[in-house]
Amino acid sequence: MKYILLAYTKKADWETVDTSSPEFLAMCQFYEDIGRELTESGEFVSTEGLADPSLTVTVRKGDKGAVAVDGPYAEFKEVLVSYAIVDTATHDRALEIAARIVEAIGDTVEVRPIPDGPDGS
Question: In which region does residue 8 sit, left (phi positive, over 0), alpha (psi from -120 to 50) or beta (all else)?
């Protein structure tokens, strides 16, 4: 089954990240290594980092139809920074991958199944 892994980081950390720091470079290396591992195992589907949250536009229903609002839909302490889609044999394996990311990077990772069919299976 496919799972989407949604990675969140603290807003303050996002705003103050030093992309030349050894810690940041180690995170980049971790993502490169786990990406290679998941590709070799056949579990990798896709991944992308996301742009700065200040560029977010949220579209929602208003009194006069759909309206676009700058920024996310609510005040937040964490921001969505990336996603990955993996195709694993078990839910536990998807959780294992997420746990490795959390342990290595410190981000929060939400794991959500992607149903194969219209019945949610």
Answer: beta
Distance CA 45, CA 78 (A): 25
Distance CA 93, CA 76 (A): 29
Q: Between 22-41 and 91-105, two packed helices, what is the crossing angle to 10 degrees?
A: 160
pTM for the predicted model, two decimal places: 0.85
Q: How far apart are CA 18 and CA 13, in angstroms?
A: 9
The tens digit of pLDDT for each residue in 27-58 reads: 999 999 999 999 999 999 999 999 888 888 88
Judge contact between 73 and 60, C-beta under 8 A: yes
Q: By C-alpha distance, which of 84, 106, 110 is closest to 24? A: 106
| Phi, psi for residue 10 in degrees, rounded to 5 | -65, 135
End-to-end CA separation in angstroms for the chain: 9
**Beta bridge pairs of residue 109:** 7
120 φψ region: left (φ > 0), alpha (ψ -120 to 50), beta (else): left
